[in-house]
Amino acid sequence: MRNIITLTVFIYFSGSVLVHAQIDSTLLRRTNQDTSKLLLNMDAVYNRPFLATNKVPVALGGYVEANWQHLGTDGVTEGHQFQMRRLTLFVASGISRRIKFLSEIEFEDGTKEINIEFASVDIEFHPMFNLRGGVVMNPIGAFNQNHDGPKWEFIDRPVSATEMLPATWSNVGFGLYGKKYNQNWVYAYEFYLTNGFDDQIISNDQNKTFLPATKQNRDRFEESSNGVPLITGKVGLRNKIIGELGLSYMGGVYNKFQDDGLVLDERRRVNTWVVDFNTTLPKIKTYVVTEWAFVKVNVPDTYTQQYGKKQAGGFLDIVQPIIRKNIFGFEKSVLNGVCRFEYVDWNIGKFTETNGNISEDFVSVVPGISWRPTPQTVIRLNYRYNWTTDLLGNPSSKTAGFQFGFSSYF
Amino acid sequence: MKGRLPVLAFACALLLLASCEKFEPIAPNDAAILDGALSGLTEAENFRFQKGDIAFNDEIFTTANGLGPLFVATSCGSCHARDGKGHPFTTLTRFGQIDGNGNLFLNSGGPQLQHRAIPGFTPEQIPSGATSSKIIPPAITGLGFLDAVTDSDILAWADPDDLDGDGISGTANWVELKSYVVPRANSVFQNGKYIARFGQKGAAYDLLQQTAQAYNQDIGITSFFEPFDTYSGVKFDPEISSQAIHDVVFYLKTLKAPLPRSEGEAIKSGKQLFISSGCGKCHRAEMKTGNSFIASLSNKTFYPYTDLLLHDMGTGLDDGYTEGSAKTAEWRTPALWGLGLSKNSQGGHYFLLHDGRAKSIEEAILFHGGEGNQSRESFTSLSGDEKEKVINFLESL
Hints:
The structure holds two protein chains of two kinds.
Chain A: H1 2-22, E1 28-30, E2 51-53, E3 58-73, E4 76-77, E5 81-96, E6 99-108, E7 113-126, E8 129-137, H2 159-164, E9 170-182, E10 185-194, E11 230-239, E12 243-253, E13 258-259, E14 262-263, E15 269-280, E16 287-297, E17 310-327, E18 330-345, E19 361-374, E20 377-389, E21 397-409
Antiparallel strand pairs in A: 1-2, 2-3, 3-4, 3-5, 3-21, 5-6, 6-7, 7-8, 8-9, 9-10, 10-11, 11-12, 12-15, 13-14, 15-16, 16-17, 17-18, 18-19, 19-20, 20-21
Chain B: H1 4-19, H2 43-58, E1 70-71, H3 76-79, E2 92-96, E3 112-113, E4 116-117, E5 131-135, H4 143-147, H5 151-157, E6 173-175, E7 189-190, E8 193-196, H6 207-219, H7 242-254, H8 265-276, E9 287-288, E10 301-302, E11 310-312, E12 330-332, H9 361-366, H10 373-380, H11 384-396
């Protein structure tokens, strides 16, 4: 896997060098972006600012995120932290008019994590019948497929999307998608079969049911942990005026129930359901995006209630443009007032010993401001305040502090 | 205006950098939490404390690093949230028999029931013929002080034959040492046995034994000290290093003692009523440590409200289970320091006494029987206002 990544990065940079060495930079052009207001979250992977050169069928792009933060928990702080959270590189290629390829490689926290987040070939047979195969982003919720930093006004990604759901969640597999336009409406579907989760979702160092734990499995792009495909499906609906509604499901067997023909356990499923919605309110131009998810996991009754059988949570972002004008010489720059509300119940249920509620909740409020000198770049100042309650429901621990940083496509 | 904007932005940034800590949650009052190191530790001791803290509170056991296959909890911190008393979620069940002939069920999974199992395995059941007792994990603060009390002091408080005729005996729990336990200097040795002091029955000699057994019996982790797998009974390679266990032992020794949270006349009056009711005969207020290799623990006076002795608590609290030389109705006097903070580690409720059956301090007092009869009667004869003063005093500890 590492060799593939190294080779890909090498090809990417080699391509860049060649481009700069041989072609007048004035020939570089931005690819056209769809401004029809009928784009869906599923279009996010291709709705990015790519840079292409004349006659070369490859477009390049990416984004970068860096920030400073000073957070404290119950009087204890780690002080000033400067973080390079992500450097993401895109390579897209129009192989033919109806066959295209896109890859997204992400370096997180320097080179601590290097991931292929997307590397798929799309073949269009009909607008309602496209085949996609390779490393695909499972269409669960809105955030997973539409996660690029420059598209969001907050430095941290939503906890419900990245820790309860496992965004960014990519797997090897194949699937179909299609869209149908009807005046102000667009209808879409996606359906994929991919490799899925493994036993780590209920056996991990978080001490709770934690779907992202599967990402620790370095073999997951090579083989399924149990041979049963993970099913992911989504239907999306957008109206030019009302907004976009998405309903998605992802589920499958997560545990290694047999090995070498020997039965080790019964088949245990994980199921997730997500509803997402986004809209821009007319006149005041307030942008609202929200995603709420429910997770159900078959955890053995004889295991520990530390690992919850049900989880629920989501986030609500409100972005209110305040000023649209020339600031510091950036024409049409936009200053936004923003606020995010997040909630996750990691363990819905009652203790068998006391019949009392199991807690383990997370609540967060993140007000802030964001400034977009251009649509592709965002500079953000957030103030985060979290309340974290443990399994037993003891007094919450509180974390708060300022975060400042930028995210930009390049 | 154009020129002023960057200056203003720069000034705001500087202001933010300089004052950001003021916008962060403040630390709770030191007396309101049990977590925290003993004051006066050296830098090297602070370093060891921190290592133990991480091993105790942050290390989660999974199938990948040795959990189970049979277990009760997945980490030390699961049973002792915030270093305080445990919740019924992690109640421990010990099984054995009513006589003091040593546990006869060690080959049947004893002494502790592991009622949880990793997927694919079946949890343990109490074997037929065994008696059992449920035990709520105790608070773990101030244990270093209790560990450093000399055997001679403990024996001086004992009155096994009730020679003073006050209805309270108090006996030490004499146990044979595990092979890996090294007796303290000046330990009293009698008929091949030593005085143990930790655990609800007071049957663990020291914090090394308590820690190694807890890893093994609670989490299913084998170590150099306790190498037998609780599922198969077979001797396994260590799943945790001896260094990690010693770090946890050091952490337990150097956790600060709970600090009193309230003073004033009403509390003093409550304390007086507590003493005059005879409660202080077992829940002894003051103790002294002997010599310790940790200077902050050496020759100190402290106030745990225990006598580290076993007392017969009557038939109501007789679970029919014994450890060491403790009889079935005998329980080691629990330290009362930190009692008022118990709710903060038990999910906002009290689960008191050895098995958490008492849902309030008053209920816990009323469950006292046997040697605690007289004190219970004295308490019940108090007026409502006086009872409240006693409760407030206990909550202030």
